[in-house]
Amino acid sequence: MNELKSFLQYDKTFSCVQCGYCLPACPTYKVLEKESASPRGRIALVKAAAEGKIDVLDHLAEPIDLCLGCRACETVCPTEVKYGAILEGAKHTIRLESKPTSAVKGLRRFVFEGLFPHPGRMKAVTGLIWLYQKSGLRKAAFSLGITDKLPFHMGEFERALPEVPSPLSFMRKKTAVQPQGKPKAKIAFFAGCVMDSLFYETNQKTIELLAAAGCEVIIPTTQTCCGALHAHAGELTQAKELAKRNIAAFEETGADWYINNAGGCGAILVEYDHLLADEPEWAERAQQFAAKSRDINQILSELGPLPFRKEIPHRLTYQDSCHLRNVQKVASQPRQLLRSIPGAHYIELPGADGCCGSAGIYSLVQYDTSMQVLDDKMKSVATTNAAFVVTSNPGCLLQMRMGIRRAGLENSMKAVHIVDLLHEACDL
Predict the structure, then answer these.
(1) Is the CA virtual torsion 331, 332, 335, 337 positive or negative?
(2) How far apart are CA 52 and CA 249, in angstroms?
(3) CA-closest candidate to residue 187, choices 177, 172, 199, 196
(4) Burial (Cβ within 10 Å: 0-12, 13-18, ≥19) of residue 286
(5) Each residue of 213-234: pLDDT tens digit?
(6) Domains with residue ranges and CATH for the chain
(7) Taking the complete model, does pTM exceed 0.90, yes or no?
(8) Three-class SS of residue 172?
(9) Using one digit for the tens of pLDDT, what is the confidence trace for 116-137?
(10) What sequence ranges are listed for the domain 4Fe-4S ferredoxin-type (predicted)?
(11) Closest CA to 370 of 399, 329, 347, 391
């Protein structure tokens, strides 16, 4: 029982006084309207499971799986409950208690061990997607209705995919870039796994923007997946191993800052110190790594102004990445950057701080709830009449692309990563 309490972060549950301030901030409580879908409800269930009053799998797993992990509850909590730690502890416990089939085990092993930690394999998958998009297979799949028959609503997500880069593009990848003039800072860039495959061009534009802002940029070749998807899926052991590999890779660069351009990745990078707090040989190194980890919006705002050369004469609005806003506490900087673009008219999105429903693979495994959250979000997006909905995270970007299509706004609105828009305005 003591081990179960430790895994479930039982000691942290006592910080929750069940006041209910978290309820209006919670997107799943908003759409599902039940206590077990709220932060305080889930914490109560975690406490009950730790005390042996309810079963982990029968009573706790479903409410925990329904949580988006946006951590908006932490921003309004008067007692500063560490909900993120409680959530990951619960997911880890559920993972340990569950008895998946051999097929599920194999799939998890392939995804979490065989795919995401290996950049080359991620790029190989992207190459297959490129071939599918360019060869006529995609057009044939649509015309025959094959995509609509895919499991987990994959057909709908397929429509939201960007045009991915060709395999030849990856061969032009640089490992270091020098700015014109004396460098203002030495930057080590965290490329990520999804960003450096599906959104490879955005990564290259990020590097060019950093150089244009006066940074010397290094891209560590031994870096790997951040481990966020692993941690969110209860694979904490693997998440820790990935963290150690990244810490070692970035320490070698001697950089002033470690910069990322994905809100979800950045959230775990700045919490490596919490992830490795119980490992004495890594704890201090993890603290130093977390202290140097920053989002692209932060560094561009501090080193600016950017060398804009082109007007973007359109209405812009911004959807916060939950992990960028709620964990990294970055909210004003992207808005300042968007307002600084020549010719642009920035419109604040009502409820921009609310989750869009993406949350990693949540939109796949909890499709119905995710779409309820997304459709509610799009009602607000539509009121802005913006030409561009700007995001700072790949999952949010795909989700907003899907939301625009679901809302019938494809002809008037486009979802873009903030880096792509800033890069265009700088005409690099």
Answers:
(1) negative
(2) 42
(3) 177
(4) buried
(5) 999 999 999 999 999 999 988 8
(6) 2-97 (1.10.1060.10), 102-167 (no CATH), 174-300 (1.20.1050), 308-426 (3.40.50)
(7) yes
(8) helix
(9) 999 899 999 999 999 999 998 8
(10) 6-37, 57-81
(11) 399
